[in-house]
Structures are given as C-alpha cells and as structure tokens.
# Entry
Amino acid sequence: MRGFFRALLTGASLTVGAAAWAEEPPVPRMLPCFEIEDVQPDHTALELAGAVRSCVEAGRHGDGMAIFIAFNSYSLFDQQRVRDETAHEILTELNQWIFNGMGKDDIDVLRRHAETLRLGDSAYQDRICNALWAVGPPSYRPSYMIAFGQMPRKGDDDWQVDGFDAEVAWKVAVGEKNRCGDARL
# Structure
C-alpha cells in the first residue's frame, strides 16, 4: 500500500494508468461549407463547427446557420452520451470558437436566419429538420469530448452513460432542443 500512496503523491502510477486509457481524438477533417442535406453521421461536432465558419467565410450564411443547427444537435447528442460532465465544457469553447472573430455584419445575418428558425413554420426550418431526421444520430466516437474530460478513466468504454439510448437522445437533441418537432425516424 505504501507504494500506491507514494505513486499517488508523485503521480507516477497515475500517469501510467491514465496513459492506458487516454483518449486521443483523431485529427478533424477540415470540411468546406456544404448544404444541410449533405451532413453525414460520421461528421463530428468538431468538424461541423469548422464547417459553420467555412460557410460564413464563403458568404453562405443560410448554410452556416443550418450547419450550426446540425453542430448543435450532434453536440447535444454527445453531451447526453458522455458521462463525464467536465467533458461537456468543451461545447462552450466550441461555441465561442465558432463565432470568435466574425464581423458584426456576419453576426447580424446569422441572427436573422436564427430568428427565422425561432419563429418556426418556415421552409428553411423544414429543410434543416428533415435533413437531420433523415441522417439520424451520429455514428462517431465523441473523442473530442471524451479527451476534454477530467474524470479518471478505468477502461476504453467507460466514457458512455450507462443505458444510453441513441434514438431517445437524438429525439431530444433534434426534436426538443432544436425545435424540430416529433421524430420522423
């Protein structure tokens, strides 16, 4: 037992133990701006965040807001499946990164698109919601979020919430949180 406490105080065994289950997120793909109908279940929330910025830089604000809703749905889905609540803090940072450095004009145009979504019952909202219901829940491992967490890990699969139900989580992320009504799955 003395060795354990000595290692704990010096961090020796913790480093070795943590390294065995440290999450190494893959390098995200740099996605260009694309239409919401082209979102894929293997696009990560991190990649979608970059695509939002690409759309705004290309002057495609409507597509940018649509991809932002996809990013939001994917990140809310990930938040429901990753049990380490400290890992969820990465979403605050990603949201800040998406909008950091955008000019007032770009923000104003995005706000107008967001207002259209908030009011509901528009062809724009229907297009976004239909695309998200059609693609279904993400299929990737949320390594970007897992790696950000501070909870000690004991195994490769201990990151996920026990009893996680992907269909229910997707209905919450898309239907409830992003106002896309009843699931069309």
Q: What stands out?
A: The longest helix spans residues 61-81. Residues 1-20 have pLDDT under 50 and may be disordered. Residues 110 and 175 are 21 Å apart (CA to CA).
